[in-house]
């Protein structure tokens, strides 16, 4: 798929079919995420792949009852790994670069999923402690985004975007 068509095709989906993702598609998605750029190529992020219904239920609870997390066959939880980045970039790596690394990786996952005919929605509204407890994350990992991945149950509409004249500023 042409990159620009891919970007136009990607939409947030909050309803998923009861259909598993083919292992080769999931592997391709994860391989693509592994190609995401990161500060100093440190890849200061971690991904927890969640398929267990009890874990997904706990994630939905930590995300203020966003029940669609239960519908998706896979939920990818992207965590910043601040210590990995701070080893080279100190405080800026700890507080900024590791979070940027995790968000770039999640964006690659969203685009890869779209290219593979899958649907996603970025979930950022959650209690960090609840997500950490639900997955028994190691101390120091910071949950940044959850990405439910699956097949869309219904078509999504394109949402309006800001006018470039309001968005882009020259200096």
The helix fraction, in percent, is: 40-55%
CATH superfamily: NADH Oxidase
Q: What is the level 1 CATH name? A: Alpha Beta
- Give a count of the beta strands, DSSP E runs of length 2 or more: 4
As an assembly, this protein is: single chain
Residues in β-strands, percent: 5-15%
User: Averaging pLDDT over every residue, what do you get?
Assistant: 97
In the predicted model, the low-confidence regions spanning at least 5 consecutive residues are: none
- How large is the count of helical segments? 7
Structural class: alpha+beta
Q: What is CATH's topology name?
A: NADH Oxidase
Structurally, the number of domains stands at 1
Order of strands, main sheet, comes to 1-2-4-3
Specify the biggest β-sheet: 4 strands, antiparallel
Shape: globular
- What is the H-and-E element order? HHEHHEHEHEH
Question: What does this molecule look like?
Answer:
The structure is a single chain. With about 170 residues, this protein is an alpha+beta fold. The chain has a single domain, classed as NADH Oxidase (3-Layer(aba) Sandwich), CATH 3.40.109. The protein is about 45% helix and about 15% strand. It has 7 helices and 4 strands. The chain has helices at about 5-10, 25-35, 55-60, 70, 80-115, 130-135, 165; strands at about 45-50, 75-80, 120, 140-150. It has a 4-stranded antiparallel β-sheet, sandwiched between helices. Helix 3 (about 55-60) packs antiparallel against helix 6 (about 130-135).
């Amino acid at each position: 798929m042409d990159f620009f068509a891919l970007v136009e095709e990607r939409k947030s989906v909050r309803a998923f079919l009861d259909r598993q993702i083919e292992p080769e598609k999931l592997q391709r998605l994860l391989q693509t995420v592994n190609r995401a750029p990161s500060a100093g190529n440190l890849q200061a992020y971690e991904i927890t792949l969640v398929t267990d219904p009890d874990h997904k239920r706990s994630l939905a609870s930590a995300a203020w009852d966003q029940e669609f997390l239960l519908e998706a066959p896979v939920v990818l939880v992207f965590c910043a790994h601040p210590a990995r980045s701070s080893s080279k970039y100190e405080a800026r790596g700890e507080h900024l670069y590791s979070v940027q690394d995790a968000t770039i990786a999640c964006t690659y996952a969203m685009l890869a999923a779209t290219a593979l005919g899958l649907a996603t929605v970025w979930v950022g509204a959650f209690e960090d402690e609840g997500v950490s407890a639900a997955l028994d994350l190691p101390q120091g990992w910071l949950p940044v985004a959850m990405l439910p991945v699956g097949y869309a149950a219904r078509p999504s509409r394109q949402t309006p975007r800001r006018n470039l004249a309001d968005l882009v500023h020259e200096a």
